[in-house]
Here is the input.
Amino acid sequence: MTDVSTAGGRTPSRAVEQALVDAAERVLVRDGPGGLTVRAVATEAGVAPMGVYNRFGNKDGLVAAVLARGFEGLRAATAAAEEADPVDRLISCGRGYRRFALANPQYYAAMFGAGVALAAPTEELAERATAAFSALVDRVRYGMDKGVLHAGDPVETAQLIWSSVHGAVSLELGGMAQVADPGESYERLLRMLLAGLR
Here is the structure.
């Protein structure tokens, strides 16, 4: 049970929210997107279901907070690529993307809609998802500025890369990869993408 009490007996609202998101994250990882219910999260956090509604309004608000955390993790995994060589930086970014997905398969699936249906993303979720994509855009722009990638719209080029790596990772996570070594195949995909964009 999550202990979020303070010395004065009152629990700061932010601490309760964090505890609930922590609990939701555990439920998501353990039970998958389908297990992410208000009751399950409240039980995991050791609070009444009304505590979830009081902090997040409804299930969508809670789920959006969890997914926002996931996109922040994805952003951190790809933004860690800071090599001086533009190609190495993009390869490292792609590797970070796959590592995140393989280390967090339930999270990754939920982030891209598997088993989760939100009426509309919250502002925080939209910002975090945009920031994750922007990390790739920044590395593409760096490659263009250095003359390694063909000059063009860095957003469009990043979208092409993201579509490709997301497809490869999703196939791998779904057990649909048709190659003996998905990791080696993914490395070839990254090299092929960058060769085509040079």
About this structure: The longest helix spans residues 123-145. Confidence is low (pLDDT under 50) at residues 1-10.
